[in-house]
Design brief:
The structure is a single chain. The protein has 97 residues and is α+β, with helices and mostly antiparallel strands. The protein has one helix at residues 4-18, and strands spanning 24-34, 37-45, 51-61, 64-75, 81-86. The longest helix is centred in the N-terminal third of the chain and has 15 residues, at 4-18. The radius of gyration is 16 Å and the shape is flat.
Length: 97
């Protein structure tokens, strides 16, 4: 059984995605690793072939929810990246012209 804050968060996420007026949920997975930890994987397809992938590793505790990791990825009909947000550390570099 999940801790209450985490269970509430998952219910809110599911309710939000179920309200989509366009597009459809292609995948909705909640992987419960422990009573206080869950991995969430969601893929939504939109008209004209656009796709959103929503991935989170979430923990819940004493009245709070925290994201250990997240990745939000949106691409167009040609599978070209429109945007991507994540909390993975990225190594800086330089571009040669």
């Amino acid at each position: 059984m999940l801790v209450k804050p985490l269970s509430k968060y998952l219910d809110e996420v599911e309710a939000s995605f179920s309200k989509l007026s366009s597009g459809y949920i292609e995948r909705f997975e909640e992987e419960c690793l422990a009573p206080d930890r869950v991995n969430l994987r969601i893929r939504v397809r939109f008209p004209k072939g656009y796709m959103l992938e929503w991935n989170e590793a979430v923990i819940g505790g004493e009245g709070h929810v925290a994201h250990l990791a997240y990745r939000y990825h949106f691409q167009d009909e040609g599978n070209k990246l429109v945007f991507r947000y994540d909390n993975t550390p990225h190594v800086g570099g330089f571009t040669r012209h």
